[in-house]
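Look over both lines:
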Amino acid sequence: MISAYGDRQQHLLKLLLATKAGLTVEALSQQLDISRNAVRQHLASLELEGLVAKGVTNPTGGRPEQLYVLTPKGHELFPRKYSWFSELLIESLRDETSPEQLRQRFIEMGKRVGAQLPGIAGGTAERIKQMTSVMRDLGYESTMREDSRQAWPSIEATNCVFHHLASRFPDVCQFDLALLEQVVQRPVFHEDCMVKGGTACRFKFQPGSQESLIEVRRTHEDMRPSKKQAARKQAARKRS
């Protein structure tokens, strides 16, 4: 959040937010009422954090001047009401569907997102590693944990990007679980949950796979009698 920065840097970032084309060192110096060297020091620090970047050069009668712009990461420092809007959407869905349908909707969303992730491949351990990285990209402070008692590493997240939302709508967690299962291709056990008072969210991966579940369903379907077989049995019962 922008409040984590000093007053001068906050003012600089707000100036760049208000001027989409960017500002020069000279313009920032005048508006911040500090020296150009001080502006350059602030810009260098913010550039290292990926919040500010060099834009185009501003042609002048003499030497072209460099413009500085706010990056997408810099824009994210400013408050946005995503959580509020998400709550409105979920409340609307809850009013229009049953609890089980709402739960299933989160599961379907997680599976869909997992299926769309590019470059996911390899065995279970490699997929867990890739999923840990995906979670970091989504904003989780996630770590892969090795455990000699488990067949595969677990994933631990010390923050929850949906914490406020999941506190009101616990089934939101089904999105994460479905996403994890889709990517890793293993059933997930949600061992610990921050919404339920845990110190972290911990996900362990169990034996079995989506493929094996499909095979089970196919086996049950194969055991069902065909229409012809059912007709023969019914005719035999009538004769007897």
